[in-house]
Amino acid sequence: AYTGEFLIDDRDITFDHWLPSFNVKFDVGNGLLFRAAVSKGISRPDLQLFTSGGAIGDNTNDLRQEGTLETGPLFQLFTGNRNVRPVSSWNYDASVEWYFDDVGSLTASFFLKDIKGIVSGGIDTVDFTSPNGTTIDVEVNGPINSQGGTLKGFELAYQQSYDFLPGLLSGFGTQLTYTYVDGGAFGNTQVGGAQRSSFAELQPLAGISKHTVNAVLFYEKGPLAARAAYNWRSDFLITPRDDIFPFSPIWQESSGQLDASIFYALTDQIKIGVQGVNLLDTVTRTSQVIDFDGNRVTRSAFRNNRRYTFLARFDF
């Protein structure tokens, strides 16, 4: 557009981060421990976000719709951004742990993550100068570090082996965990110009269930080892944009799954056993948002069926 020249953007992509970490443990005796930790972490952006290709084109139609034709940049460009930087997070953790037996504990942990620089689609105005010295303002559409928020929650956990029980019962034990996560005021990111529903901005952060429960019953005595695990999580957003019209946000409804296994050691090196997956024949259901109030209707349902695997393990 304008001059027909090529602009070369071959800047080096470099960034440095100082990632401190501090941990402290306080043992007050009788199996009671207190822990605290503070750390900083980063998550590097996808390499494709740095792409600098594209063609500068006409932006006047968009400016007319916005009513900014007299003031806005007359050219636009859809491209990557070589200035994108890693997402950073300050992490704060604290826990109280009570070890009341050799294989017995009760713990409560709390966590908070202050996250900054989440990459989302954004708009910036950049002055581009061509090799012949021509300078124009261009509306650049691409990824930017624009979002952030606080993720917090807590976890309660209990584990015990009931070795005080008589005879064969002494091989039983349990593990129980409950986790609560508050996604805060995070918005869902959108990188690129893909169309999506106007309901998307009202949805919570994708992939986060507020409630998660894990319950395990195990048995280990002599050559026999058995385990049954039930995992359940509350509903959560899969994606703010479906692949097909009307591009509605898609949720997975709350569900749980029971898996189990049993193994018998023929020798110290050879074990045989069977594993069962989805023993309750759980059906996974998804739903789509249909209005600004967040009401949802069924989108799909999947049945994976029960699955059994017979195994032989050899240790060398």
Structural class: mainly beta
Q: What form results from the Cα inertia axes?
A: elongated
Kindly report the average pLDDT value. 88
- Estimate percent helicity: under 10%
Say how many strands there are.
17
Extract low-pLDDT stretches. Answer: none
Helix and strand succession? EEEHEEEEEEEEEEEEEE
Largest sheet: 13 strands, mixed
CA distance, first residue to last residue? 68 Å
Number of helices: 1
Radius of gyration over C-alpha positions, nearest whole angstrom: 27 Å
Strand content: over 45%
How is this structure best described in words?
With 316 residues, this protein is mainly beta. Helix content is 2%, strand content 56%. It contains 1 helix and 17 strands. Strands 1, 2, 3, 4, 5, 6, 7, 8, 9, 10, 13, 14 and 17 form a 13-stranded mixed beta sheet that branches. Strands 11-12-15-16 form a 4-stranded antiparallel beta sheet, with no helix packed on it. The radius of gyration is 27 Å and the shape is elongated.
Short description:
This protein is mostly beta strands and 316 residues long. It has one helix at 60-66, and strands spanning 21-29, 32-43, 57-58, 75-78, 87-101, 104-129, 135-161, 172-182, 211-221, 224-233, 236-239, 250-252, 255-265, 270-277, 283-289, 296-303, 307-314.
